[in-house]
Amino acid sequence: MGDYIMDLRKSVGHQPLIMVGSGVMVIRNDNELLLQLRSDTKDWGIPGGAMELGESLEQTARRELLEETGLQTKDLQFVTMISGQDLYYKYPNGDEVYNVIAIHKATEVEGEIKMEDGESLDLRYFPLHQLPVNIQSISRKMIEAFQACNIMQR
Predict the structure, then answer these.
(1) Domain 3-153: which CATH class?
(2) Contact indicator for 45, 139 with CB cutoff of 8 Å
């Protein structure tokens, strides 16, 4: 989480917050999805995170992609927004959030995959039809929304 959310937490403690952020579905060869093994929850997730003050959702997506994977993209495409009660999440430290997430897609990335921010234990591409079982709940909802949008666009 960024400085904005951490600063809010100093005032509100673990109370639920509405957290706005972006996630990036990095797709390779039309059928492989990049996932990160998260260091805080030990499950797989989509690269992304919370918006900082003054950022656009696209800027958030680009920043989080670079921070969490070492990758950059020129072809970032907005796919959909998800929100609601199903996007409630309680972090291992007790912080509670209701997420509002802009899902983006990137098929052309540059750079070398690397883990520098301490948020990832592993970064790996998985075939969309063979995703790991232990996917973080919010990331699973992002994947479902992404796949539903891709089906509708065909």
Answers:
(1) alpha beta
(2) yes
Q: For the segment 14-72, what is each residue's pLDDT rounded down to a tens digit?
A: 999 999 999 999 999 989 999 999 988 899 999 999 999 999 999 999 999 999 999 99
Q: Of the candidates 108, 122, 139, 105, which has an alpha carbon nearest to the alpha carbon of residue 42?
A: 122
Beta-sheet pairing, 96-106 with 17-28: parallel
Cβ atoms of 49 and 22 closer than 8 Å: yes
Tokens of 51: 């918006």
Amino acid of residue 108? E
What is residue 117's three-state secondary structure?
coil
Residue 148 has pLDDT above 80, yes or no: yes
Domain ranges of the chain: 3-153
Question: 117: exposed, middle or buried (C-beta count within 10 Å: 0-12, 13-18, 19+)?
Answer: middle
Could you give the CA distance from residue 58 to residue 109 in angstroms, rounded to a whole number? 15
DSSP 3-state assignment of 56?
coil
